[in-house]
Amino acid sequence: MNTSTVYISHWCSIEAGEIKRNGEILFSKESEEIELNDLLKAYYREKNISYPKFFKMDTLSKLAFIGSEVLLENIELEKPNLDVGLVLSNSNSSLESDKNHCESISDKDNFYPSPAVFVYTLANICLAEISIRHTLQGENAFFISEKFDAETMWNYTQYMFETNRVNRVICGWVDYLDGGYKLVFYLVEKQGNKQHTIEELQNIFN
Amino acid sequence: MKKVYINKANCFSPLGFGINDTWNAISKGDSGIRKIEKLGEIEDFCAGIFKENIIEETFAHLNLDSNTYTRLEKLALITLNPIVEKGLISSRTALVIATTKGNIQELEKGNLNGASISLLASKITTHFGFKNQPIIICNACVSGLMAVATAKRLIQMNQFEDAFVLALDEITPFVVSGFSSFQAMSKEVCKPFDKSRTGINLGEAAAAVYVSKEIKNKDSFEILGEASIADANHISGPSRTGEGLYLSIQSALREAEISSQNIDVVSAHGTATLYNDEMEAIAFDRSGLAEKPVHSLKAYFGHTLGAAGLLELIVLMESLKNNKTIISKGFEELGVSIPLNITTSIIEQDLKIGLKTASGFGGSNTALLIKKVLENEY
Lengths: 206, 378
Fold this sequence. Notes:
The complex is a heterodimer. Chain A has 7 helices and 8 strands. Chain A is an alpha+beta fold. Chain A has a single domain, classed as Thiolase/Chalcone synthase (Peroxisomal Thiolase, Chain A, domain 1, 3-Layer(aba) Sandwich), CATH 3.40.47. In chain A, strands 1, 2, 3, 4, 5, 6, 7 and 8 form an 8-stranded mixed sheet that branches. In chain A, helix 2 crosses helix 5. Chain B starts with a strand and ends in a 6-residue tail after the last strand. Chain B folds into 2 domains: about 210 residues, Peroxisomal Thiolase, Chain A, domain 1, CATH 3.40.47.10; about 150 residues, Peroxisomal Thiolase, Chain A, domain 1, CATH 3.40.47.10. In chain B, strands 1, 2, 5, 6, 7, 9, 10, 11, 12, 13, 14 and 15 form a 12-stranded mixed sheet that branches. In chain B, strands 3-4-8 form a 3-stranded mixed sheet. In chain B, a hairpin with a 2-residue loop joins strand 3 and strand 4. By secondary structure, chain B is α/β, with parallel strands linked by helices. The chains are: A alpha+beta, B alpha/beta.
C-alpha cells in the first residue's frame, strides 16, 4: 500500500506531577504527591487560560483539556476547523465519573442523580470538550484498550490521511482513575521532525 | 482503497433472537417495549428490556458455566456464537467491540475491576479464541455504527484481513437513573418524529456482523462509505444546524462517490426527543434527503445505546434484502420543522442503497452507506 508520509510535529505528556512538551518539562510541582486536579488548575492559572467551562468538567475531561492546551500551544487553528481529526484512547473509560454517578444513586434516601455528572459517564465526552474548545468538526473516535495500542492508533490515523479526510490529527491517551493518571498527546501532520511510525508512537508513549 | 463487505449478521433484542424473528416482529409492527414498574429507584417508565430468564435460557444452549459470565457477557456470547465458525478466526482476524457502559452493573455491586470494559472484551476474546487484542469503541450512542466503520478502515489499512464486530449494552439502574435525570424518558412507547412525542425509551440488545474484503455470500452488503464527525457544539445537546451529522453524511457520500439521490432509504437515529429529531430533520434536509423514505426503529426496541447503530444497520440490511420499507412505528403527525418522508406503510420497491445514521452525547455522529451486492458480483 502507498502509505502517506506524515510526521509527529509536537507531543506532550502529563504524568507524575510533570507536564512536558516535546520532551522538555514545561511545568512541574515539586511534590509528586500533588493531586491531578490541583496540578491542572495550577497550570490553567499560570497560563491565564480563560475558559470557565473548565471548572465544570470532570477530572478526565480537565486532563484532556489541559493536554490539548499544552499540545496546541502557539499553534493557530482555524475556527471552525473541518480538517483536524481527534482520536483518543484510554484503559479506564469514564470509571471515575461512573463511580460518582453510582454513589448518587446507591442510597434510596439520598438519591440525587445529576445530569451534570451523568453526561461525563461516557469516555468520549473528554474528546468532545476538546472539539468544542477549538470547534474541531473533523473525524473523531474514542478507543479503549488495556494498554496503549500503537498499531491501531497508527493505522486509524494513517487511514484518515490516506483518504484525505484530515490535514492534522490530535491523537493520544488520556486515563484517570482513583488518583492515578497518564496523558500522552501528539499531533500528526504533513510536516515535522519525527516520522509517524508505530515505533515512534511507542517511544513517545513510554 | 479495497472494498469491504458485511457478510453475516446476528442480533438479539427484546423483539427476539436472530434476524428472522427480529424482522418478522418488525414486519408485524410488534414492539419489545414494555412497562417497567421499578428499576433501581426509578418507577413507572417504558423500556425495551429482555423478558426475565430469556438470556439465561438461550445461554443454556451453549453448555457453558453460567456462574463464570455476567448477564451482558452471556448476551455477547449468545449473539456472536452463531456467526463465528471455527476456522474463520485467523491470526489476521479482528474482534471489534462497541459498548457505552459494558459491565457497569458490576460497579453498582461495588466491583470496580469487574466494570472494566477491557476486561469484558478480553473475556469475549478468550472465549472465542481470537488471536489479536480486541479493538474497543466507546463513543456514546454512535459506538455500534462507528465499530463497523472502524473494522472497515483497519481492514482497508491491511491491519486485519477480516473482523467480527459486536455491539452491546444493557439496561441498568445506572443508565435509567441518568437518562431520567435529563427528564428525557417516556412513560409510553416512544414516537420518533411525531408531534405528540414524549421522549425516549431505553433498550438493550446485542448485534454482530462479520466483515471482510471478500464477498462471502449472495446476501452480502458493500460498505460504500462512512464518516464520524462531531458537532463541536455541546456535550449533551445536538447541534441546532445538524452540522456534524450533515458533514458525516457528506463525507460518506464523497467516499461512496454517489449523490444523496442514489440513496433509496434512510434509517435515522430518531430517539423521539425534541432536539434529536429536529437536528436530524435539518441535517437530512440539508443533505437533500427530505423526500427519501426515513424510519426510526426506536419504537420497536427502544434506544439500545452502544448497540443501536449496529442493530439498526442489520435491520436496514433486511429491509434492502426484502425490498420493503419499514414503518416508522409511533409516527402519525409530523413533529419537526422540516417535512420529511417518514414511512407510514410498507412500500415494496427495489431497494439497493441504504443510509444509516447515529448521533449521541458529545455531539458525536456517524453516517454509513451500504449497498446490496448484485448477483453478478458474487
